[in-house]
Each structure stands twice: as C-alpha cells, then as structure tokens.
Specification:
There is one protein chain. This protein is mostly helical. Among the domains are: 51 residues; 34 residues, no CATH class. The chain has five helices and no strands. The longest helix has 33 residues.
C-alpha cells in the first residue's frame, strides 16, 4: 500500500515557507523604497548631460559639414570621424555613470535573488509561479 499525503503535516510547513517568502518580499520592497534618490538622480543628470553633449556635437557636426561641403570633401570626412569619436565617448560615459549608480544596491539584491533561486525547488508550485516576476524586478 502507498501512503497518502497528510495535509496536516505539510500545510503548516508550506504556510511557513510562504510566510517567509512574503516577509522577504516586504523587506525587499522596503529596501527599494528607502534607497536614497541621489544615485538615481545622479544617473539621470549624467544621462541628460551626455544627451545634451551628444546633441551639441551633432549640431556642430552638421554645421561643420555644411561649411565643409562648400570647400572640400576631405575636410568633411575628417569632421565626421571626429564627431563619431565624440559621440562614442559620450555614450560610454553615460553607461559608466548608469552602471555606477546601479551598482550601489546590486549586492543585496543579488543575495536575495540567489536565495530565491536556491529555495525555489522546495516551494509549492504557486510560489514558483511567482518566482520569475520576483527575479524580473532585479
């Protein structure tokens, strides 16, 4: 004969795991809400400054290209190459600022993410269905 699943034993354990997961989610939400806005504001300001610099460089390149078109083709090629390099440098600075701002809170979130990944095989299917939405917030 085979044994039946005794819900009086498994249900308290599942409820305890679900409660633990809920508390972990509340802690995560609290930590995200209490993050100082300076990192996000600094990243947004850096992105806006880089976008303004890129727009100014593009406008300068267009003006230089229009002026150079009246003279020679060689000057136009040189101006275009310089503008491309400037835009690439601005884009690299923007991504570096965004990465630096985001990296201030990643270690704790990575720890929570790895914890959830490790316990997910032991959670009931209803909790596992919530798991990808939790991970996608990182």
């Amino acid at each position: 004969m085979h044994q039946r699943c005794d819900s009086t034993r498994t249900m308290p354990l599942l409820l305890l795991l679900l409660l633990l997961l809920l508390l972990l989610l509340l802690l995560l939400l609290l930590l995200l809400l209490l993050q100082p806005p300076t990192a996000a504001a600094a990243a947004a300001a850096a992105a806006a400054a880089a976008a303004a610099a890129a727009a100014a460089a593009a406008a300068a390149a267009a003006a230089a290209a229009a002026a150079a078109a009246a003279t020679t083709t060689t000057t136009t090629t040189t101006t275009t190459t310089t503008t491309t390099t400037t835009n690439n440098n601005n884009n690299n600075n923007t991504s570096d600022a965004a990465v630096a701002a985001a990296s201030t809170r990643i270690p704790l979130l990575n720890t929570i993410q790895h914890f959830l990944i490790r316990i997910s095989p032991y959670l009931p299917s209803s909790c596992i269905m919530l798991h990808p939405s939790i991970i996608s917030t990182f």
